[in-house]
Amino acid sequence: MDTILLLMEKARDRLLLEDYLRDKYLLLTTALTSGDPFDLCILDGPALTHFRPQILARKHAARESYLPVLLVTTKRDVGLLTSGIWQVIDEVITSPIQKAELHARVEVLLRARRQAQALLTIQQQQLQQTQSWLRESEHKFALIFAKAGFAAALTRMTDGALVDVNEAFERISGYTRQEVIGKTSAELGLCPDIEARRLVMQELNVNGHIHDREILFCSKSGEMRTFSLNLDKLDIGGEPYILHTMQDTTERRRAENDLIQSETRFRNLFQNNHAVMLLIDPATGNIFDANPAASAYYGWDIATLRSMNIADINTLTPEEIKVEMERARTQQRNHFEFRHRRADGEVRDVEVYSGPIHMQDRDLLHSLIFDVTERKRLEEQLRQAQKMESVGQLAGGVAHDFNNMLAVILIQTELALMQLDPSHPLRNRFLEIRSAAERSAHLTQQLLAFARKQVINPQIIDLNDAVTNTLQMLRRLIGEDITLAWSPAPHLWPVKLDPGQLDQVLANLCVNARDAIAGVGSVLIEARNVTLDADYCTRHNEAAPGDYVLLSVSDTGCGIDQATLKRIFEPFFTTKEVGRGTGLGLATVYGIIRQNNGFINVYSEPGMGATFNIYLPRYHAEDLPATRSPEPDAIPAGHGETVLLVEDEPTMLEVTQMMLEQLGYRVLAAGAPSAALQLAAAHGAHIQLLLTDIIMPEMNGYELAEQLKRFNPEVRVVFMSGYSAAAISYRGIQHSEAAYVQKPFAIKELAAKIRALLT
After folding, report:
1. If residue 255 lies in a helix (H) or strand (E), which one and from where to where?
2. How many other β-carbons are positioned within 10 Å of the β-carbon of residue 479?
3. What is the pLDDT of residue 583?
4. Which of 256, 312, 379, 552 is the most exposed place for a label (fewest CB within 10 A)?
């Protein structure tokens, strides 16, 4: 209900108004002095004269919401109202007062007040919302300003004084916020280049902003660094300010300078190097650049070489070249052997070392080419010398038995001839027998000295058949005191290899095994299919992911120490006494395997024999360069089971622990059986699987497993060794084939073995 204040000096008019209004409105007579609120004031002339100051004050206080005043007067007095009076009143009603007219005038004035109040409410709500948004915006700006990763500062434009800085500014300047507020950058010596500072401010005044301007910035400690500066003019509370934001570009600038210097050094090295160098676009094979040494070697000038494609030089097919360039680009390989054509038509053997390089916004291959034609010739001579040595050893074994038989024939023939009369009809037949025996003896003499040169002829072979065919020869090489065992594999993949080279590899390895065995012993040859994954190849630089046929040769000889293992494939390195070896046998084996895109690993410990693992790439029918194997299936993961890992080789212990933890197992690692037993005593009931090396100090892995079962009879066991399972048996150690993995193993192989035992 609206409230009306009645200020009527005339009692008759007041009573009349009260009678007309009391049904619809709340009437007050003292609100002006008491301060009570009201919505409309009705007064007469005397009251206006008396209360004019108070009414003006109340109207002024309520000016935004409109407080109306209605004056009751006579018709005669209306014309006498002055402009000063109209500053106080809003409407006039003349007496005699009619009720309907009064209600109409009152409603008009009250409606105007209600509309003014509603409008004021909307304006106040909008103002509050705007103020809330402003406070939120200011809060966000303050938060961003304070916590931004880049340095920021706010300065007054009038005097250049710093009014605020953020934490990043404090870090890069070395000053605290309290130290810089109120001071200028000149006073702090932040920008020592006065002329540069003047030019920046001049441009800011013209453009209103500065973007990505490089400046030198001096910290409190005196360190000079390069920064990218951005300046923006702001108006805060009607006062002009400058927002400074800075990013440290010292390292970027240094890196850019280093890159320029690196490219300059590379260019100088490229141009002045005596080695033949080419820059090749791997996408097209086009020669991007060639150095003077390349021009001299190939016989074309540099401009001509730049217009050529590598297919004009390399004798491989374009498809094969593309495959090899992709290998170099992705760093699957960096060493290649090719045959290159020169301008005069001559084809030379070359070794190429190639890898990716980024230059002049291009991804290129940087290739160093070395002519190895002469080295190839010498290698061929070396292979021939090794072949002669192997044939000589073979001939010695054959001649021993064959000459014994020939001796019997010759002796018996001579005895018969001595007893026959010269005219006896059988004498001529015995003479023919003696002649044939003598010719055979001469052949054995030729065999002992025979070693002719043969052209290498790689063929697609089955190692099961090829090794089987060499067994008789190998048995003669190693002698009767040494047992030779052969363990072929079913469904063995084919490989591409010169059978003669295979014979040479096996002969060299078996002769080395024979020399390492004192007295009675054994040699085991095995073959099986293996697939190597990317994880294995990261730990064996010579390997590439894919399918291989693994050919292993193990012996029960004296073993090889770690120092010797590091040099075992070096040409002319030998541990044999003078006259028993040239030091070329294992070097030849290594060269043959690498020539056929394979690799070889050796596992041995003193007193425990040796195992040579030869990996030959699986031959695919399409006869392309070795292809990548398909992505492996999912590797079965663990579920938090506890595995006790025992390995006496620290590096192998570390990488296997990492492998198991990555698979999701809890690992207790021990570097010796004694340490493993201590862990078993503390955690025995919780150990679910033992993964242990077999050949170790103190005790072997099988003995350790038996002792561990005293603490936990239910524990599962997986044995591992660089020796093959069969080779372990040859050493007299019994084991379970189902719980054995041969080093090196892929993650998938070990994970599957463990899961099979724990499931």
Report:
1. helix 250-272
2. 12
3. 62
4. 256
pLDDT(321) > 80: yes
Q: Are strands 482-487 and 239-248 parallel, antiparallel or unpaired?
A: unpaired
Higher-confidence residue: 387 or 716? 716
pLDDT band, residue 503 (cuts 50/70/90): confident
> At what angle are helices 499-516 and 585-595 packed, to 10 degrees?
150
Six-digit token pair at 609? 């024999």
State the residue range of the domain holding 685: 642-758
**Number of domains present in the structure of the chain:** 6
β-pair type (209-218, 224-236): antiparallel
Assess whether pLDDT exceeds 50 at residue 454. no
Nearest to 77 by CA among 99, 94, 52: 94
pTM (two decimals): 0.35
CA 709 remoteness from chain centre: 42
CA distance 304 to 466: 49
Q: Residue 186 belongs to a domain with what CATH number?
A: 3.30.450.20
Amino acid at position 733, single letter? I
Q: What is the CATH number of the domain that holds 481?
A: 3.30.565.10
How would residue 632 be classed by pLDDT, with cut points 50, 70 and 90?
very low
Q: Is pLDDT above 50 for 569?
A: yes
Residues 54 and 110 in one domain: yes
Tokens representing 35? 């301060």
For 362-395, the DSSP string reads: EEEEEEEEEE-HHHHHHHHHHHHHHHHHHHHHHH
Q: Are 673 and 704 in contact (CB under 8 A)?
A: yes
The pLDDT of 745-750, averaged and rounded, is 73
Whether residue 287 is predicted with pLDDT greater than 90 in this model: the reply is yes
Nearest Cα to Cα of residue 553 among 501, 493, 511: 511
| pLDDT band of 629, cuts 50, 70, 90 | very low
Q: What sign does the CA torsion over 529, 534, 540, 546 have?
A: positive
What token pair was written down for 499? 């059978």
Question: 665, 643 in Cβ contact below 8 A?
Answer: yes
For residues 47 and 109, membership in a common domain is answered with yes
Cα 655 to Cα 517: distance, rounded to the nearest angstrom: 33
Mark whether 593 and 470 lie in a shared domain.
Answer: yes
CA distance 459 to 448: 28
Pick 352 or 188 by higher pLDDT. 352
218-256: b or e for each residue (b if 16 or more CB lie within 10 Å)?
bbbeeeebbbbbbbeeeeeeeeebbbbbbbbbeeeeeee
DSSP 184-199: -HHHHTS---HHHHHH
